[in-house]
Fold this sequence. Notes:
The chain is 3% helix and 50% strand. It is built from two helices and 35 strands. It has helices at residues 3-9, 14-21, and strands at 36-47, 50-58, 68-74, 79-82, 98-106, 109-119, 132-141, 149-154, 163-175, 178-187, 192-199, 206-213, 220-229, 232-240, 256-260, 269-271, 278-279, 287-293, 299-305, 321-322, 324-325, 329-334, 337-342, 350-357, 370-377, 382-387, 390-395, 398-402, 412-416, 422-428, 431-436, 441-446, 455-457, 461-469, 473-476. The radius of gyration is 22 Å and the shape is globular. The two termini are 20 Å apart. The relative contact order is 0.13.
Amino acid sequence: MNKETYLTEYPKHESMRENVKKDKNRLHFHMMPPTGWMNDPNGLCEFQGVNHIYFQYTPFLAGWGTKLWGHYTTKDWIHYKEEEPFLYPDEEWDRDGVYSGSAYTCEDGIHYFYTGNVKLWDKDYDYIMNGREQNTIHVFSPDGKNIAYKKLVMTNDDYPVNMSKHVRDPKIYKKDGRYYMIQGGRDAESYGCALLFCSDDLEHWKWYDTVRTAKPFGYMWECPDLFELDGQLCLICCPQGVEKKGYDYWNVHQCVCIPLDYDFTPGTWVIKTTDNFQMVDRGFDFYAPQTFEDQQGRRILIGWMGIPDADYTNPTVKKGWQHALTIPRQLHIRDGKLYQEPVKELEKLCRNGRTFSKEEFQNLELPKCAKVQIDFKDCKNMEFSISDGVKLTYMDHVLTLDLGNCGSGRTIRKVWIEELTDLTLFADTTSLELFINKGSQVFTTRVYGKQGKAGLKGQCDARIQVYEMSGYEYGRI
């Protein structure tokens, strides 16, 4: 779909847009598609005081289809503007979809790198070792809206010879005057890895190194993000094909944060152990996050509130839309561990705060959109009923999120923690985001049909604060 086709089709779907607006399952303080399908956040950046949020987008279909880059902007994380889609699959290099990519800002504009997907249909292919092109494309924009040029900079022939046709999702990292591009990959032995390329000018790229584990950790690493955080070099990526281990890796595909010890000297970059890998989110609906550093120096993460190949559903498909993005989160590394906390700006959405003891909290009907902050003291065990059938329990050091009959196929997720000290819940109409122990553990999920009274019981003292959450405000171009 090129820009002309989009503009031709768009007026026919104003009625679709109006129907989507009427859906009771629409979220209030999350970015979501105006219509159709949304997945990976892309090209996140702040440029001249404006935050740009691009995303994978199929505007006229609530299922998988050929992708554009949709576009929102915000200056304050409260007021948003819906911009015209930014990238279209309008070249031979990306004819079957503008796939995921990132942004790198400079004084005179923004450089974008993304994967152009091409799928061949002239004969039978396995679409792993053949039948697919994954092209790396460079776009420059002076303002984040208008495109000055679009160039093909790498094809599969430029990737190492031992790779499959699955190499994608470029992200830029600059160190000591050189540019590095990391891309996710699957090699010919179905061994997940990430490829590192280098450049002196953002135009000419060469393979530099490969990031891999000593033993296979999945068959494909998607959406890699390389950055430094509080003095620690980190890699966040989404491995596919990782086996379940204890309470870890229960989703069909995963998202992990990997601490790295690397001085950017070329050679095989082998990660000896996976024991210090941390799951970024333990909920049912979290994948393909991307981070960027804003002009305050904060490392901000936004994830896709969804996941590919899931065996559970979203009732919103019947209304013409599907998926959303998480609330923006600020990241930190403390004692070698990743912490996530909602950005401070979201406090402006909090209204009518009330404080309760555990006893006063019983049989309380929570607002449809709410923030709940619970601080525990000497918590031996507890059961937090969010609504009828949706519960968070802590017993024998195991924290369990149980969606009961409200999950549309989603069931239970767990984590072992030494001590439960606090939790913060952001509940939107059909989503939950739980931040445990200052955000050292996070659960993100969609949830449908939740109703009934909340309550808290168990062997613990607790101070509970409840706020109503107002919604984001949207404008249109």
